[in-house]
Amino acid sequence: MKNFKIQKDKGIVSEQFLNRNIHDFYSACHYISMLPYKRNTDKHDILCVFNDSGGTCSTKHAVLRKLALENDAAEIKLILGIFKMDAGYTGKIKNTLEKFNLEYIPEAHNYLKIEQTYYDFTKANSNYHDFKNKLLIEKEIEYNQIVEEKSAFHQDFFKNWINTENLNYSLHKIWEIREQCIQDLQKRDDCGTDNFSPVCYQNSQEVRDEFKQ
Predict the structure, then answer these.
(1) Sheet strands (E) in the chain
(2) Is the CB of residue 153 less than 8 Å from the CB of residue 160?
(3) Dihedral sign, CA of 45, 36, 65, 183?
(4) Maximum alpha-carbon separation in the chain
(5) Kind of pairing, strands 104-114 and 76-86?
(6) Phi, psi (5° rounding) for residue 24?
(7) Is the pLDDT of residue 204 over 80?
(8) Which run of H or E residues covers position 19?
C-alpha cells in the first residue's frame, strides 16, 4: 500500500495525527481501523473521529482522504459503493428480507482506492473483498460529501432500483425495511459483528426526514 510521511503545518488532520505520535499514512490507517465503530455527533466536522474517539465507514475514510490531500497524495481516492446486503452476507437480516420477499437491500459503504487497489479501514478486520462481488455501483466522492451527497446518491439508487425491479413498495417503505435490517444488525452489538458495519444513520427520525416524499 502507498505510504507517505505526514508533514508538519500541512493541515488540521495532519496535526491531529502528529499530536498522537502518528507520522505516516500506513500508521494513520491502522489507527483509524482500531477506533471503535460508532455514530459521530457531527459528521460535517472532519475532526469528528478524533473528537468522538471513533466513527463510521464514512467519517473514518473521509479523514484519511483529507489527510492524503493535505500531504499531496491526491491519488488516494475516497469511494462510495452500494452493494447487495443479503442473507448470505449477514444472516442477521434473513427474517426481515423474507418477510418482505426481498433478496437483498442495497446498502451504502465508504472505502479507499489506492493505486487500483481497494482498502477498507472501517474496522481492524474489514476487507473490501467481503463485499466486492456484491457491488452494484460505486463512484468517487470527496471527504466533504459523506453526508447530504451520500444520502442523495443512496436515495436516487433506491428510486431506480424500485422501478427496475418492479417492486410494490414506495421509497419510504423500502427505507423503513432497510432501517429494520440495520436494527437487526444492532440486536447483539453496536451495528453488528460482521467484518463490515453498515452506515447506521444517526437515528430513526433523521432517516424519516431524509427519505420523506
Answers:
(1) 76-86, 104-114, 117-119, 135-141
(2) no
(3) negative
(4) 56
(5) antiparallel
(6) -145, 165
(7) no
(8) helix 12-19
Joined together, the cell numbers standing for residue 204 give: 430513526
- 154 vs 198: CA distance, rounded Å: 13
* DSSP 3-state of 116: coil
Q: Say what the pLDDT of residue 98 is.
A: 96
Q: Which amino acid appears at position 90 of this protein?
A: T
What angle, rounded to 10 degrees, do the helices at 12-19 and 57-70 form? 100
Q: Which amino acid is at 87?
A: A
- Supply the pLDDT for residue 188: 53
Q: How far apart are CA 151 and CA 140, in angstroms?
A: 14
Q: Evaluate whether 112 touches 121 at the Cβ level (below 8 Å).
A: yes
Examine the pLDDT at 197 and tell me if it is beyond 50: no
The total number of residues written for the chain in this structure: 213
Rounded CA-CA distance 45/51 in Å is 9
- Cα–Cα–Cα angle for 184, 189, 194, nearest 5°? 75
DSSP output for 166-182: T-S--HHHHHHHHHHHH
DSSP secondary structure letter of residue 92: G
Q: Which residues of 106-116 are buried (b: 16+ CB within 10 A; e: fewer)?
A: bbbbbbbbbee
Give pLDDT tens digits for 133-171: 999 999 999 999 999 999 999 999 999 999 999 999 999
pLDDT score at 200? 42
* 95 phi/psi in degrees, rounded to 5: -65, -40
